[in-house]
């Protein structure tokens, strides 16, 4: 959830103490109305939708109507603060903004959270709704219901949130509001009379939407008289103030100087920074139950997403975190381009992981690439954005290895089970795989893929999913033109290029979303690469037996292109279970040892060629194949 102020004042201040003095002045000037705030006048809501349905544009109109920003062409997608968001035109981080709005002569505090729409950032949406009592379900009146629309509606229902269905882009010529309302009624059983229509670009109907937020969404169900308790929904790092947290207050109140503690620790801390995000920071002295505020405990205050911040009077631990455990879909190795940059890259990854709690970071090493990290992501776009943010925000260059999915392995044999302390283990790197004789069964992660496509592409979509080892589930017609299809698909077949291929075969009209379906038994095998009979561990992979021949040929052909020719012949072999499935040969450089001959007996020529052949045979038996580091990088990169 976001997070960093849009216009960070401290970026323009050279000395930290000047910024502290500025904050104190702002706090003194804001020692007003927040203490008188009534929790019944608070509304916490998110905007959820499929990607590119106009969430950020609608957020801009809400900011304008409530007076946070002035209408201007320069004030576009104000809540998309990251450079990667502006370049790609997508929302990556869920951002909060506290808005004041007067309705029926009463002042309300509206905490708006603009969320991402891509499936790879669904964790941001999950964290957002934990602080909300309602959501604005935004649907494009031109495109209709899309795959991610189904996912976010299901998420809202599971969290018992009030849903305000809203059609956007109704001003466009191709808009068909009646058709989309019929889809909402057919799929979600939503009364068409409750669906609002807006044009976020032109501002039509946005005021009515604000009023619906106030009248339909209930105030937060909190206890203002209990001891202070809040849970952390986002964190980020500040150069001068350390870790700052975005907290939703469940009970009590908090103020500057108050002693608090973390649920995970008994150490006490004093609240040093307290602010509302509008979306720039507005320092306050006190916050009450029901609010979403920024809290800072100083450079050594700590804090992590999902933890609870408690009053020191609370003796017992509170309930566990309301956030679900994150299931990483893709793992990749991240290594410094130069090992001298290891410490710098490590610091950059830690700071970025603090702001992106959806990643998991574990130390890894490679004989070819050196010391690095094995990082878990929610998808390939998540991986791309993370590495781009490393470069843009922290100036850290990194080498990224080929992504892989996690597998579950069931072990056999008392000795190996004792070694791993379990009969089942999760493998995120093929190098962790035990020997085949210790493996009883392989388990592959599956997902339930939801595809919404025009009816004319049903055949092409079905063929694609069956080629990717998909199993069809019952489909449902949204109307006479669109169909919702579902397949059980292996995750390894989805994360690489499935979405791009789907868009290609459906002329861009189909949409795709997936959810975890657990691990299921599968016929898997480890594919190894041998160079002149020597195993190259970095190039090992786990593949399905039906894809073994294809994967072996593709990898050996790529290695033949990448590895430079040397003085000896190099045999590249792809081996699985002791059988060679593909082979390529890199011929040796040939030195013309007979060039110095200008005539004479033919036996002299034969003698020189025989000596050369014997020398190469000896060299091949004792020489190590020199594979440049750049070759490993080229092969391992996605």
From TrEMBL:
Its EC number is 3.6.5.n1. It is found in: Mitochondrion inner membrane. Pfam families: EFG_C (PF00679), GTP_EFTU (PF00009), LepA_C (PF06421). PROSITE patterns: G_TR_2 (PS51722). GTP binds at residues 49-56, 114-118, 168-171. Residues 40-221 form the Tr-type G domain. GO terms for molecular function: GTP binding; GTPase activity; mitochondrial ribosome binding. It comes from the Eukaryota. InterPro entries: EF-4, EFG_III/V, EFG_V-like, LepA_C_sf, LepA_CTD, LepA_IV, P-loop_NTPase, Small_GTP-bd. Belongs to the TRAFAC class translation factor GTPase superfamily. Classic translation factor GTPase family. LepA subfamily. Promotes mitochondrial protein synthesis. May act as a fidelity factor of the translation reaction, by catalyzing a one-codon backward translocation of tRNAs on improperly translocated ribosomes. Binds to mitochondrial ribosomes in a GTP-dependent manner. This is Translation factor GUF1 homolog, mitochondrial. It comes from Papilio machaon (Old World swallowtail butterfly).
């Amino acid at each position: 959830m976001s997070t960093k102020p849009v216009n960070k004042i401290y970026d323009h201040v050279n000395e930290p103490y000047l910024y502290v003095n500025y904050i104190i002045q702002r706090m003194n000037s804001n020692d007003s109305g927040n203490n008188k705030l009534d929790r019944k006048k608070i509304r916490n809501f998110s905007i959820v939708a499929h990607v590119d349905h106009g969430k950020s544009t609608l957020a801009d109109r809400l900011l304008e109507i409530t007076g946070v920003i002035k209408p201007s062409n320069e004030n576009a997608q104000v809540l998309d603060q990251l450079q990667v968001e502006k370049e790609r035109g997508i929302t990556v981080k869920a951002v909060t903004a506290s808005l004041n709005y007067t309705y029926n002569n009463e002042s309300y505090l509206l905490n708006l959270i603009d969320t991402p729409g891509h499936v790879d950032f669904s964790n941001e949406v999950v964290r957002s709704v934990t602080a909300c009592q309602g959501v604005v379900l935004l649907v494009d009146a031109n495109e209709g219901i899309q795959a991610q629309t189904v996912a976010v509606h299901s998420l809202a229902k599971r969290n018992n949130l009030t849903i305000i269905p809203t059609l956007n882009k109704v001003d466009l010529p191709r808009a068909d509001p009646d058709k989309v309302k019929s889809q909402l009624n057919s799929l979600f059983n939503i009364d068409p009379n409750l669906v609002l229509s807006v044009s976020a670009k032109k501002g039509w109907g946005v005021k009515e939407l604000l009023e619906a937020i106030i009248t339909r969404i209930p105030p937060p169900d909190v206890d203002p008289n209990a001891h202070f308790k809040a849970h952390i929904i986002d964190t980020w790092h500040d150069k001068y103030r350390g870790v700052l947290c975005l907290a939703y207050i469940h009970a009590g109140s908090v103020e500057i100087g108050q002693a608090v503690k973390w649920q995970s620790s008994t150490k006490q801390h004093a609240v040093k920074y307290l602010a509302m995000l509008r979306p720039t920071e507005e320092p306050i002295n006190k916050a009450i139950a029901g609010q979403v505020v920024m809290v800072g405990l100083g450079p050594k205050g700590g804090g992590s997403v999902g933890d609870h911040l408690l009053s020191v009077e609370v003796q017992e631990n509170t309930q566990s975190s309301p956030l679900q455990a994150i299931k990483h879909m893709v793992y990749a190795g991240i290594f410094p381009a130069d090992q001298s940059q290891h410490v710098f890259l490590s610091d950059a990854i830690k700071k970025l992981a603090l702001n992106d709690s959806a990643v998991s970071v574990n130390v890894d090493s490679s004989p070819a690439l050196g010391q690095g990290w094995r990082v878990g992501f929610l998808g390939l776009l998540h991986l791309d954005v993370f590495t781009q943010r490393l470069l843009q925000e922290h100036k850290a260059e990194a080498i990224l290895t080929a992504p892989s999915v996690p597998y579950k392995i069931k072990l056999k044999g008392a000795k190996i089970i004792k070694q791993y302390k379990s009969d089942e283990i999760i493998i995120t790197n093929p190098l962790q795989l035990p020997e085949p004789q210790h493996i009883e069964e392989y388990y592959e992660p599956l997902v339930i893929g939801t595809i919404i496509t025009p009816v004319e592409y049903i055949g092409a979509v079905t063929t694609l999913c069956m080629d990717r080892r998909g199993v069809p589930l019952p489909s449902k017609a949204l109307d006479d033109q669109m169909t919702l299809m579902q397949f059980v698909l292996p995750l390894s077949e989805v994360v690489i290029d499935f979405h791009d291929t789907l868009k290609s075969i459906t002329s861009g009209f189909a949409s795709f979303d997936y959810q975890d379906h657990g691990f299921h038994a599968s016929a898997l095998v480890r594919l190894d690469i041998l160079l002149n009979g020597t195993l190259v561990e970095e190039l090992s992979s786990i593949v399905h037996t039906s894809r073994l021949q294809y994967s072996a040929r593709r990898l050996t052909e790529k290695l033949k292109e990448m590895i430079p020719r040397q003085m000896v012949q190099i045999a590249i072999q792809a081996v699985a279970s002791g059988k060679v499935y593909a082979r390529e040969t890199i011929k040796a450089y040939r030195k013309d040892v007979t060039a110095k001959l200008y005539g004479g007996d033919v036996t002299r020529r034969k003698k020189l060629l025989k000596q050369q052949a014997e020398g190469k045979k000896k060299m091949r038996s004792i020489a190590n194949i020199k594979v440049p580091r750049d070759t490993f990088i080229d092969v391992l990169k996605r």
